[in-house]
Design brief:
Strands 1, 2, 3, 4, 5, 6, 7, 10 and 11 form a nine-stranded mixed sheet that branches. Strands 8-9 form a two-stranded antiparallel sheet. With 229 residues, it is α/β, with parallel strands linked by helices. Strand 8 (155-157) and strand 9 form a beta hairpin. 44% of the residues are buried. It contains eight helices and eleven strands. The longest helix has 23 residues, at 183-205.
Amino acid sequence: MEHTEIGVVRTSINRAAPDAVAALSAFGVATIHEAMGRVGLMRPYLRPVYPKARLCGTAVTVLLQPGDNWMLHVAAEQIQEGDVVVAACTTESEDGFFGELLATSFRAQGCQGLVIDGGVRDVADLERMDFPVFSRAVNAKGTVKATLGSVNVPVVCANALVRPGDVIVADRDGVVVVPCERAAEVAEASAKRESNEEDKRKRFRAGELGLDIYGMRGPLAELGLRTED
């Protein structure tokens, strides 16, 4: 399978259109996930390493070997302004692949943040820098630079397929992947969903119940729900 290819760096990728990425940045992960048809979420064990971390950008993908962060250094050369690095591993590993020095390097290239199915360290420094990271673990254990992986190949990160150039949005609710060719469509659907939710919010504030807003009473009665004193 292509996503397991080892020893390749692809320098030309098709990134989602910048205006579509900017439009998606206005919405939360939950809204985008629902608007896209309830797909695209990474596993919920990926968490922000500090509370206010949030990111949106196009994916530069990295396939790592366990305990080895060499390919993150290789990936730095492929970052363009507005990119997010998405790092998967050939097998489970919670070693500290990434820290303040790599964050400094990535930021100098225009990186918007990192999503990694592995560990990171220097969390206090990352928060001070306001460099958003979503990781599997926080782990001080260091890594080596000895084994080839790949850059800009399709990867499976926390059970989600990510292709180079797809849009990654992450906040405290999780991480979602939007296929690059669907970015504009999903942004439009997210805007419609937000508008619809604002209407419901007003009705809830006015005291209406979800039972009535969502037309639940009939289906509940058909299933035999009884109200008793």
